[in-house]
Here is the input.
Amino acid sequence: MTRPPTTLVLVLHGHIPDVLGHGTWPHGANWLYEAAAETYLPFLVAVERLLAAGIPVKATVGMTPVLCEQLQDARFASGFDAYLAQRARAAREDEERLLAAGDAHAASVAASWSAFYAGHRADFARRPEGLIPAFRRLAERGALEMIASAATHGFLPLLPNDRAIDRQLDAGLATHRRHFGSDARGIWLPECAYRPGGAWTSPADGHVEDRCGLEDFLAARGLEYFFVETHLVTGGRHVPAYGGQVDLPGRGATPYRIHSVRASHGARVAVFARDPLSSQQVWSGKIGYPGDGRYLEFHKKRAPSGHRYWRVTDSKLDLGDKLPYERAAVAAAVASHAEHFVRLLESAPSPPGGDAPVVVTMFDFELFGHWWFEGVDFLEAVFTRLLGSDKVVPRTASEALAASPAPGVLGLSPGTWGRGGDFQVWWNEHTIAYWKEVDAVERAIEMFEERREAIPPPLFAALEQQALLLQSSDWPFLIDNEVSRDYAETRIKEHVGDFWRLARMADSGIVDDVAFAAIADRDRLFEPELAAVR
Here is the structure.
């Protein structure tokens, strides 16, 4: 008897924290421009090209509300155009220098960089409405399903009270609706961080209280599904998306079937779990596709342009030993890896009962094109290859849910897709001071709530906005990885300082118009949503 075809659910999670208005380099606006130039815009072009060729595309794409707000900010359009022009100009200057030095091969790579950025600049100019409307149009055509997230990618399980979770979700869902024209059916929990109901320990002061599970918040808002890391469903030996290996508790269930959790009032919310095998092939720079010696080396750049001219060669080599990038060799690498990926999907194990397996491949969107330069080409090759497969059917998450048997109920343990599979990246000895600041801000907002009618609505909205910005999971994440710890601590200090500056205005009843205008001009996020929340 022929097995039903595998369902592929490709999930791309796009997120950049609030950087517009907070400098340019290395962690300011250029962070956003790089992702747009190397990931979001190339992806749009690739999907549009596939559809024009009659090749179906099905992907579930999350663009966090804070990312959407920045991509549609007028400052982004002008800054991005200038960025693309500068990158093309730097490549042309590289080409001139390399030709003068007699390095014709490297000069040809420089010419390709110039064409890359000039081409994207022309394409962006043809999109006067911006990038987000292009994603919306692809969703309206059924190629993409756009899912929501918390407003600023706040780490929901550790937020100090339910009001903070409500704010993150309500502002996030409303912003998603404004940008994409419809309510989201699914959500990406930031960091795939899930917490069930029960005893909760404060990361700020260690006190314990009873809290409801995140599924209660999702079900109350009509959300139908979310995503978790593999071990929350399977347990046992686990390799998290970001590396490492741990033994963790789980439910002994299969990741190749959709499950569900039950909210306290009885409603169910579906759960998709990451497939570790296919995901590892795409994530890993050591054993996966991005580590192939033919692909562009991410870390080695030529000064002063910052462009890349070398290939991976061998992931174990020092940067000084990397060989020149050979663009002609890349097409064969992409084709072979797309073929291997599809065969891997075709051989996915059936869940008990013989149902068709559901393979959920979940990635940071920015992996494709930015970290792995050829990654968008790989996705395009995968969808092209799937057109000829009768063993794999790509579906959006909602389509997969509709086509699958009714999900059984699991009681999930808390966890994330970070190192160790738990909360350790975001809650450790280095981040306790951060959580104390988050807790203090929430306590202040709670007091302001009691006399909200006496506070001008724009001022109250600004207080909530700074609370949201402070709660971004990026700040404790960057503190933990230490490479960008100074930047994270600076941003925390900025948002804490702005919050208490605004709080003094609320306390005194005297608004400093100059200071208020400066904060409002720099952080232009969720203004309609926060103004509407009462």
